[in-house]
Amino acid sequence: AFGGFADAVENGEHLEHFHSYQRPVDSVQDEKTIEFHTDQGLFIAFTPGLMVDSQDNIIETQSSSGFHIELQDGTHAFVDFQDDDLVFMLGDGVNQIINPKIQDEGKKLRATPHALSIPNHKEDEARAWYGRMVLPPTDAVHPEHGDTFGNIRNLMIDAAGKGEQTEKLSLGCSSSQTARNLEEIVCQENSIYCWARCMSILEEGIPHENYCQEERNLRLDCVNPRNQTYTGGHGDYYPACTASAENATSYPKLPVYQEIRDPDICTDAAYNDFAKTDGYAHSFDLGPSIFMWSVVDGEVNGRLVFDGVFGYLAIGHASYAGGPHDSMNGASIIMALPGGDYSAVTGLDMSLEPNINEYVISHTASAFRHWKEPVSASGANTSSYEIEVVENCFTAIKFKTSEINGIPFDLNGKNDLIWAGNNQDYYAGYHGYGNRGTFVVDFSSGEAYMKRDEGH
Q1: Is the pTM of this model over 0.85?
Q2: Are 231 and 246 in contact (CB under 8 A)?
Q3: Using alpha carbons only, what angle is made at residue 167 by residues 164 and 172, rounded to the nearest 5 degrees?
Q4: E-only strand ranges, 243-288
Q5: Which of helix, strand or coil describes residue 180?
């Protein structure tokens, strides 16, 4: 269960939109570029669009031109935004998640039907727009359909992609609404739409768009390392030549994963005993984990305890404030794995011993296959790094060091840190709901708080 709306938003799927719209020369002035519709997400935050030319010059100051909403009485109204506005607009997700919980209070939030029409413009001009849509967490269960929002979204994407007119298109919508594609996604030459973005095929060694069919009698598609076709959600995907007809599935589970661990052994009392802070000067509760530490002889003597089975566990320096994926990309970390000889196709070899090393997460690619080799640039002594496991119940890592990958801890001030744990699979992949966070530790005072609470 999620702790509230803020918790659902933080762990929801965030889709960043960068759009550029141009009106065809022969189009009708009053014709809508995007017809009236309601977004599927919980909400979208966006900045008013700007008319720009090919030199990135802003053409007009009325940035909100052409944005219309449908009022509750069915009438349509033009919205006059200010250039520096940040707009929040509710989507259909509030009808599915929030309104059923507040209806007894006589309250109801309203998802906003809206449309866009673009004014006539010169050939080298376009309307540029940015927004971030927040969808329900992929592993949250839909209150009506009993399946996860992630699975429902995948079914809808698959049906829409095949042009099917089935009940699948209504699964993720409230009332009698149906999902529909409102705009055609067009990628540049030598790129395809893959993993919710346009990806270059050249970067994957595919010389041109017809290569797969003409040279290898295969099709060009978006796949994961297990040669499964992308349908939506989290994962590791890229353009490739393939003959596979298999849609993407979740990673194979650990022999004992979180939901089937023995409740008679993995009790609250057992975890509390495992997570004792004896011998440490300070501790901070991260929810599903606890970080405890002391500063001894210029080094951080730390222990991260995880109320989860051992898929992986990691802690380290956040890359930089506000960096990609909650300061994950580029981060220097200490990471423990339950096996070795990693393959993106078969995962970790669980017959090999667990290991713990320092890594640098790729600045540009999150999947473990891009940064699976440990780093030793700092020459640091990692002999103090330890893994502790209550088999099929809990996990912890211990360390005593003044730095990670040559980046020293600030023992006299604040440190931005990240942590993550996986309790589901042996592919070193997505950590899942709630099992990660960015937090701040002041090693001089013992103060700690979540990064999102900074300044509050």
Answers
A1: no
A2: no
A3: 105
A4: 282-285
A5: coil
For residue 123, the one-letter residue type is E
Radius of gyration of the chain (CA): 25
309 is written with which tokens?
């089975």
Output the CA–CA distances (angstroms, integers) from residue 135 to 13, 117, 152, 185, 332, in the order listed. Answer: 5, 25, 12, 20, 29
Q: Could you give the percent of the chain with pLDDT greater than 70?
A: 83
Sheet of 414-422: strand order equals 355-360, 332-337, 312-317, 414-422, 436-442, 448-450
CB within 8 Å of 356: residues ≥ 6 apart: 334, 335, 336, 337, 382, 385, 386, 387, 397
Helix (H) / strand (E) containing 181: none
Query: Where do we find the tokens 């909403």?
Result: 69
Q: List pLDDT tens digits, range 306-357.
A: 999 999 999 999 986 455 556 788 999 999 999 999 999 999 999 999 999 9
DSSP 3-state assignment of 196? coil
Local structure of residue 325 (DSSP, 8 states): H
DSSP 455: T
| Phi, psi torsion values for 71, nearest 5 degrees | -75, 170
Q: How far is CA 284 from CA 230, 331, 361, 416, 451, in A?
A: 39, 21, 24, 14, 13
Helix (H, G, I), strand (E, B) or coil at 145: coil
Instruction: Give yes or no for a contact between 338 and 311, defined as CB atoms under 8 angstroms apart.
Output: yes
Long-range contacts of 365-368 (CB under 8 A, 24+ apart): 365/329, 366/236, 366/325, 366/328, 366/329, 367/236, 367/429, 368/342, 368/344, 368/427, 368/428, 368/429
Across the range 205-209, mean pLDDT stands at 95
As a whole number of angstroms, the distance between CA 109 and CA 86 comes to: 19
